[in-house]
Design goal:
Elements (H helix, E strand, L loop, with lengths): L5 E10 L2 E11 L4 E5 L6 H8 L7 E6 L2 E2 L13 E3 L12 H7 L9 H6 L3 H19 L15 H13 L5 E5 L7 H18 L2 E5 L3 H7 L2 E6 L2 E6 L1 H5 L2 H8 L1 H6 L3 H8 L3
Parallel strand pairs: 3-8, 3-9, 6-7, 7-8
Antiparallel strand pairs: 1-2, 1-4, 4-5, 9-10
Helix pairs in contact: 2-5, 9-11
Protein name: ABC transporter ATP-binding protein
GO cellular component, one term: plasma membrane
Keywords: ATP-binding, Nucleotide-binding, Transport
């Protein structure tokens, strides 16, 4: 069996006559941070939707720890260790921070209806365990001051941190982060970068990241996978990908590629290409 934690093998997704993801293969090993980059429309979010079970592949295979996820119902992807945040926030805006984080623990609840109604035995133990784990995440993400706030009253950056916390509450083996710093200021972006590194170092969780902020990608990634029009351009270490002619062309055009414009890729990415 492969030592890869997550593996995509020749994954393709078509919508009618349009191929959004075309024969893409990539892998993430335990403890790695891997970023997927590419201009708008490159197929990045579709690739995440396939990996997290939001939609099925048209062909190819997705495996986690050797288990073929094509045989797993979408709602059970979380039980195999896949956690995810979304580009557009998917929080319960009328609930508190604690309540939103507890949602991430729901799949672990095995309580019967009777136990839940009477609130004893297993139901009580599970609730105590869930709340203890949520408090650990609140401390880890440094959001103690807003733990009882209604999510809809929080700033955008705070809500992004809550969504990250909810994904952590699922106890993932790998965390899929879809443009986690989009719309954030520099200070908020630096905080999230620190948390991503801590998630890997302290919690042992691998990261697969979609991101337009090339400065972030180049700073924290072990490897980078570049897409354009649903097809892999190249894959490798950040410095290798940044200077690759096809990546430069995808971001800046053919003239920049011929002129060796690798230094501008980061600037173009941070500008929201």
């Amino acid at each position: 069996m492969s030592g890869h934690l997550l593996q995509l093998k020749n994954v393709t997704r078509t919508f009618g006559g349009i191929t959004a993801v075309n024969d893409v293969s990539l892998h993430v090993d335990p403890g790695e941070i891997v970023s997927v980059i590419g201009p708008n429309g490159a197929g990045k979010t579709t690739l995440f939707n396939l990996t997290s079970g939001v939609m099925p592949v048209s062909s190819g295979r997705i495996l986690i720890n050797g288990t073929d996820l094509s045989k797993v119902p979408p709602h059970q992807f979380v039980t195999h260790g896949i956690g995810r945040t979304f580009q557009n926030l998917a929080l319960f805006k009328h609930g508190t921070v604690v309540e939103n984080l507890l949602v991430g623990r729901h799949w672990r609840m095995k309580t019967s209806v009777l136990d839940a109604v009477l609130h004893f035995g297993r139901a009580r133990r599970e609730e105590i365990e869930a709340r203890e784990r949520v408090e650990e995440i609140i401390e880890f993400l440094e959001i103690e001051a807003i733990r009882d706030h209604v999510v809809g009253t929080l700033s955008y950056g705070q809500q992004k941190r809550v969504e990250l916390g909810r994904a952590l509450a699922t106890d993932p083996k790998i965390l899929l982060l879809d443009e986690i710093v989009a719309g954030m200021n520099q200070e908020e972006t630096e905080d999230i970068a620190r948390f991503i590194l801590d998630i890997r170092a302290e919690l042992g969780i691998a990261i697969l990241l979609i991101e337009h902020d090339m400065h972030l990608v180049m700073d924290i990634s072990d490897r980078v996978h570049a897409l354009n029009f649903g097809t892999t351009l190249t894959e490798g270490r950040p410095e290798e990908v940044r200077s690759h002619p096809k990546v430069i062309e995808a971001y800046l055009g053919a003239r920049a590629a011929r002129g060796g414009g690798s230094g501008a890729v980061a600037a173009a990415g941070s500008g929201g290409l």
